[in-house]
Design brief:
There is one protein chain. The chain has 12 helices and 8 strands. It has about 300 residues and is of the alpha/beta class. It folds into 2 domains: about 210 residues, Spore Coat Polysaccharide Biosynthesis Protein SpsA, Chain A; about 70 residues, no CATH class. An 8-stranded mixed beta sheet has the order 3-2-1-4-7-6-8-5, sandwiched between helices. Helix 2 links the parallel strand 2 and strand 3. It is globular and about 60 Å long. The N and C termini lie far apart (about 65 Å).
């Protein structure tokens, strides 16, 4: 039995999957299996991975009809043989010491069920866009995860098998926000430990699921409401403030990508909802700056109409 199972869900990923698999092969810790779950690819992904299987005995591929990334991840978890499981999206990369240091962190902290690292966003050519955040939260991180998904993406964690078995896997009703829901369920059950290094390279692509702001917003709000439903009593008082922060985040996202009157109006709508949930946020300098930018863009859009 391998110590670690690496699960890679893939769909039409022929341009990135080989580099992703190679980033696993280059790991300094080598006792792992790689399970690729193909979710109905229509390009050359399956043929490419099958050619790599012939050269790499630790690599396996299983092919299914398209059912979404959450189902693909759950299928991979069910097939995994390792004591520890790590998930990796088919266009993301790891630094060579990722598995080694996360495994060491879990062995050094036997009470922890999940190890995580820091993330750097990269572009489609693999160039680092900017340095990511550096969270250092450990232990019971449920309250922190209610504030924000500080794990950033679905390619981050190494988790003990028993921790995954204690929850119900990835939700299929939140295909875009399933990462956050999955992490919240883990945080509700077990402790986290951090490896304070940049080890995940998260590829940002214009055609990714996360580029659909409206769907992303709806699902993230639903995930947060679901999490507060089971949250301990001492955390429930933070609901309105965290919902306010979430709507402000999407207001800023709409502002960055605003190209027409409709998207500019979405900035104003989300700012209003943010302030309504937590009125003291109106005195926040970031919100004030975004309000000024929104008013300016709205004025320009009216003049150009």
């Amino acid at each position: 039995m391998p110590t670690i199972s690496v699960v890679i869900p893939t769909y039409n990923s022929e341009t990135t999957i080989q580099e992703t698999i190679e980033s696993v092969q280059k790991q300094t810790f080598s006792d792992f299996e790689i399970i690729v779950i193909d979710d109905g690819s229509q390009d050359g992904t399956i043929e490419l991975v099958k050619s790599l299987v012939k050269l790499e005995p630790r690599l396996k591929i299983f092919c299914y009809e398209n059912a979404g990334v959450a189902v693909a991840r759950n299928r991979g978890i069910e097939l995994a043989q390792g004591e520890f499981i790590s998930l990796l999206d088919a266009d993301d990369l790891w630094t060579p010491d990722k598995l080694e240091l996360q495994l060491k962190a879990l062995k050094d902290h036997p009470q922890a069920g999940v190890a995580y690292s820091w993330t750097n966003p990269i572009d489609e050519q693999g160039k680092i866009l900017f340095l990511g955040t550096r969270p250092i939260w450990e232990g019971n991180v449920y309250g922190k995860l209610l504030q924000t998904n500080f794990l950033s993406n679905g390619s981050n964690i190494l988790v003990r098998r028993e921790a995954i078995e204690s929850i119900c896997g990835f939700p299929t009703d939140f295909p875009v926000a399933s990462d956050w829901d999955f992490y919240l369920k883990l945080a509700f059950k077990c402790s986290f430990v951090v490896v304070p290094q940049y080890q995940i390279l998260y590829r940002q692509r214009s055609n990714s699921m996360s580029s659909n702001i409206e769907v992303l917003m709806q699902e993230n709000c639903a995930v947060l409401e679901k999490a507060y439903y089971i949250a301990p009593a001492e955390l429930k008082s933070s609901r309105n403030k965290n919902l306010s922060n979430l709507y402000f985040y999407f207001a800023e996202l709409y502002l960055k990508r605003s190209k027409d009157v409709k998207s500019i109006n979405q900035v104003g709508r989300n700012l209003w909802i943010s302030i309504r949930f937590y009125p003291p946020s109106l005195f926040n300098k970031n919100i004030q700056r975004t309000l000024v930018k929104f008013c300016w863009k709205r004025l320009l859009s009216i003049k150009n109409y």
